[in-house]
Amino acid sequence: MKVEQILVGHMLNFSYVLYTADGVAAVVDTSFEPKKIFQLLTQKNLNLKYILSTHHHFDHVTGNEELASLTGAEIVAHSLSPISKDLRVEHDSVIKLGDEEIRVIHTPGHTKDSVCYLIPKGVFTGDTLFVGECGRVDLPGGSAREMYYSLFHKLSKLPDDTVVYPGHHYGETPTSTIGREKSTNYVLKPRSLEQFLEFMRT
């Protein structure tokens, strides 16, 4: 599966186009520039099947309806998401993209509906995990306790060579790996739950 990373909008958002060898595609987080995404799809002659939303915040989903209208793609989001969607997913749901599979990892903490999308050798982390940081937990629906389990019991358990594709360009590099984040990201320093909660408070 190939991945195209697109930097969009004024909040340093990343949108992603992922596609198979036979031209079946999905977009992760349409964000602010659906026409820019559509242009890429057209240039590469890709058939967009799914729009995958990592969570409901406006800077990630504001282009969903326009891109769906342009392409006929189905909007995918966690069942807890308040956005308009065609396909509801849960933890461990599997989405077929041609002969490839995308697995859903429910990662609440930033929001209740936050999910990451796992592909072979890569994971789209939305606002759960950034390069060198994690998402905020002080917004409505946020929870430091849930973020702890999402980071340490789910994402940190992925193979170290898994490429991290974050939802914003907040780090030194546009992508990373799980292994690199575990060794350099101060948020992922080994801590007990109690230590993590205190860390997030301060």
TrEMBL record:
Pfam families: Lactamase_B. The keyword Ion transport does not apply. Keywords: Hydrolase, Metal-binding, Zinc. InterPro entries: Clx_II_MBL, Metallo-B-lactamas, Mito_Persulfide_Diox, RibonucZ/Hydroxyglut_hydro. The keyword Lyase does not apply. GO terms for biological process: glutathione metabolic process; hydrogen sulfide metabolic process. Its cofactor is Zn(2+). Residues 12-168 form the Metallo-beta-lactamase domain. One of its GO terms (molecular function) is hydrolase activity. Belongs to the metallo-beta-lactamase superfamily. Glyoxalase II family. This is Metallo-beta-lactamase domain-containing protein. It comes from Candidatus Marsarchaeota G1 archaeon OSP_D.
